[in-house]
Design brief:
By secondary structure, this protein is of the alpha+beta class. The chain contains 16 helices and 13 strands. The protein has a domain of 88 residues.
Length: 444
């Protein structure tokens, strides 16, 4: 039984990864600039087809790099692949394949890792252990097994090299994003690196993930339409997580869900309600709800939440701050909206509330549309994507609190899933009961 302790990367390996990252994203960046030049200066009639072809090729090259490099690059691309509401469809189609179809590690590596962590041969713990993984992700892969007492389980096994890859990728991305900042003075990507550097290492501790799962399970004990797998603590370590096996269809398997007679509108509503309860009622939320972490059991239907490596406590009075912002939004008072954003922790380069009020004006327009239609039409979204970056470039937001960065990510992921389901959910109607309900004892 060979050792599987976390390893370090050689200088040559670090250099190879840096070169691969730089060449891949450098080509995409230069291609974007070239297409923008052609569109701006020449305006050819087939420009839409040119962009589509470029996006398709770029998505394939990014996918190939992510699969080859794994680590932090793969984690970031998984997030991008869930953004059907933001990214061109060519990227979503390609990068969404990374959610649970990452090429797995050989079984011999998995066996050594599990036996090293549990301190016993596989057969002394499991009566059955599938050699082929049921899911392969950025940090680990999952195998189906059965314990000696007959319990059916899912076994999450961390890749032995992943900690070293994360450290290397963070260093490479810091260098790359600094270079982008020199070329594009209006673009500051360093907060993204700070976020990744803070939260991804936490996902490498499976004991923490197990505790997160149990905490969220306790919060949904009163509901029968949200399910969290139980943790088998006697066989769980910081790098191997053994949990109850959960059946279900992937939440974006629209054809499969329809064939099973599942009401997609109801699934989307349960999803929104579940995260409203976590964020607004409990003050603790699952911060990585990409499609690979969400299953649907047709009976009910029931929503299955998986993978709690990234979960977050919200600060005290967070809900009050959100309610202050919502009240200002409902009154159409952009001055109070800007003040509420400042109270929530937003900071601007010039330190003036008026700068946040400019952004609040854009949010107000969208909020008014959501209130009247319970959705946002594509033209408004397109305008929003143009205008908010313009406002931020005029007076950039230089600090957004980490919990709000994660919340923004969650909202983006949920929006992408809802778009994939083709559901129209009354967001105002879903949010209001949780925003106004009494807080349970101990909630943030």
């Amino acid at each position: 039984m060979g050792p599987t302790a976390p390893r370090t990367l050689s200088v040559a390996e670090r250099a190879r990864r840096a070169r691969r990252i730089g060449l891949t994203f450098g080509r995409v960046y230069l291609g974007i600039k070239a297409h923008q030049f052609v569109e701006r200066r020449l305006g050819p009639s087939d420009m839409a087809a040119r962009w589509s072809q470029f996006h398709r090729g770029s998505a394939r090259s990014i996918y190939d790099a992510a699969v080859e490099l794994r680590g932090l690059i793969l984690k970031g691309c998984q997030f991008l692949g869930s953004r059907a509401d933001v990214l061109p469809p060519e990227y979503v189609e390609q990068l969404s394949k990374l959610q649970d179809r990452v090429p797995p590690h050989p079984f011999a590596v998995v066996r050594r890792s599990v036996e090293h962590e549990l301190g016993a041969p596989l057969e002394k713990v499991f009566s059955e252990f599938g050699e082929r993984p049921i899911a392969s992700a950025s940090l680990a892969q999952v195998h189906e097994g059965r314990l000696l007492d007959g319990r059916r389980v899912a076994v999450k096994v961390q890749y032995p090299e992943i900690a070293a890859l994360v450290r290397s990728d963070l260093a490479n991305l810091r260098t790359l994003f600094k270079a982008v900042g020199l070329l594009e003075r209006e673009v500051d990507l360093m907060p993204l690196i700070d976020e990744l550097g803070t939260y991804v290492p936490r996902e490498l501790d499976f004991l923490c993930e197990g505790r997160n799962a149990e905490k969220i399970a306790s919060h949904f004990a009163h509901r029968d339409d949200v399910v969290v797998p139980g943790i088998v603590w006697e066989h769980t370590t910081s790098r191997v997580l053994v949990m109850e096996f959960m059946e279900g269809l992937k939440i974006t398997d629209v054809e499969g869900l329809r064939a099973a007679g599942v009401d997609l509108e109801r699934v989307s509503s349960i999803l929104v309600e579940a995260f409203c309860e976590q964020i607004l009622t409990r003050g603790f939320f699952h911060a990585d709800p990409h499609p690979g972490n969400l299953l649907v059991q047709p009976e009910g239907p029931r929503l299955v939440l998986l993978d709690f490596g990234l979960a977050k406590d919200l600060p005290p009075r967070f809900r009050e701050g959100v309610l202050d912002f919502a009240a200002a939004l409902l009154r159409g008072d952009t001055t109070l909206m800007g003040r509420a954003l400042a109270e929530l922790g937003f900071e601007t380069r010039d330190g003036r509330e008026e700068s946040l009020r400019d952004i609040a004006e854009v949010i107000l327009r969208v909020g008014q549309e959501i209130r009247t239609r319970a959705t946002v039409d594509p033209e408004t979204l397109a305008e929003l994507r143009r205008e908010i970056p313009d406002r931020i470039r005029a007076n950039p937001i230089v600090r957004i609190p980490h919990h709000l960065v994660l919340l923004g990510r969650v909202i983006g992921l949920l929006s992408g899933v809802s778009t994939s389901l083709g559901a129209r959910v009354d967001f105002i109607g879903s949010i209001a009961p949780y925003a106004l309900a009494p807080r349970p004892p101990g909630a943030a």
